[in-house]
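Entry 14. Ran structure prediction on the chain below.
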Amino acid sequence: MVNYNGNFFSGEATILTHDNRGLKYGDALFETLRCVNDTLFFWEDHYFRLMASMRILRMEIPMEFTLEFLEEEIKKTVSQNSGLGDALRVRLTIFRNPGGMYNPTTNDISYLIEVSPLKSPFYLVSDEPYEVELFKDFYVNKDMLSNLKTTNKILNVVASVYADENGYDNCLLVNSDKNVVEAINGNLFLVKGTQVKTPPLNDGCLDGIIRKKLVEIIGATEGLELVEESISPFELQKADELFLTNSIVGIQSIGKYRKKEFGNDVAKSLIGKLNAKARLSLTN
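Output, structure tokens:
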């Protein structure tokens, strides 16, 4: 069952029309997050990122769109899908209502909530092989829109097709300065010695929730130095570790890039701290 503006429909129901602005213009935002035992991981961070993004895109935020209202709507959706288990992936999509062409006739919005099952309630670091390659056909823009989680993801789609066609698990995306920005589906961290580097937001990477949490964790971890700085492709093969982050996987270690193979000791040391932060969100 999916939740469309507070009403429930089966997953097969036709509820979006041909004039949906998310379909026509990518005029939409979305949040994906974990829900475990009816509790949302890092919900406040997701909520405030969504509100800030709606303001940037000049969408009208409904008066009822409080933290508590949206949380309750998500929990209602989870309840309607109780057969899927206790660990769920939640996607909340916000799109501007139909009308107009590029220039909308209204800034009012609608929302859609959907859920799907996850294998594990908490984040794990896998030792399975995971190989990446640079995707250089198109570039990430260095601007604030790139920081937002919008449905304008054609670059990510094409990069995913490229990865699939060439047998890679993921691709690393570069910006117009040819610096490495992020992966198809997450932020990038590079470990060299005791230094952990991640691209700054002004390089065009997504303002990721797990990125934010790891910036806090690494900054407070003795023996590690966090650096928010541009990453050149030449640095990748000199790194000790590379890993990706997003709200569903948590931390994904990269095992191989070209001829270089990487360890994952730092990633494994951080996953416990990330799970500890997630547990706090379960108890607060």
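The chain has a mean pLDDT of 95. Will compare against last week's run tomorrow.
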